[in-house]
Amino acid sequence: MLEVWRLDVQITEQHEHNRGLRERNQALHADVMNLKSGIDAIEERARLELGMIRKDEQFYQVINQVK
């Protein structure tokens, strides 16, 4: 009986782990589809993750000095 209980616990833990992986995979799939479908997602990612700007834009960096 103890072995059956241990296996039940392992099965439950594995189901939880698999659910987390499925959710992560769905999010990644949505990202891939978004990137494939248009330039807006690519531009957003370039701006946020790489700090890129367009040729016709100006970048201003504001530095707060603490006194």
Summarize this structure briefly.
With 67 residues, the protein is mostly helical. It has 2 helices and no strands. The protein has a domain at 2-45.
- Strand pairing plus helix content: what structural class? mainly alpha
Helix-strand string: HH
Count of beta strands: 0
Over the alpha carbons, how many angstroms does the gyration radius reach?
23 Å
Percent of sequence in beta strands: under 5%
Tell me about the biggest sheet?
Answer: none
Given as residue ranges, the uncertain stretches (5+ residues, pLDDT < 50) are none
Helix count from the secondary structure assignment: 2
Average pLDDT, rounded to a whole number, is 89
Shape: elongated
Distance between the termini: 68 Å
What is the percent of helical residues? Answer: over 70%
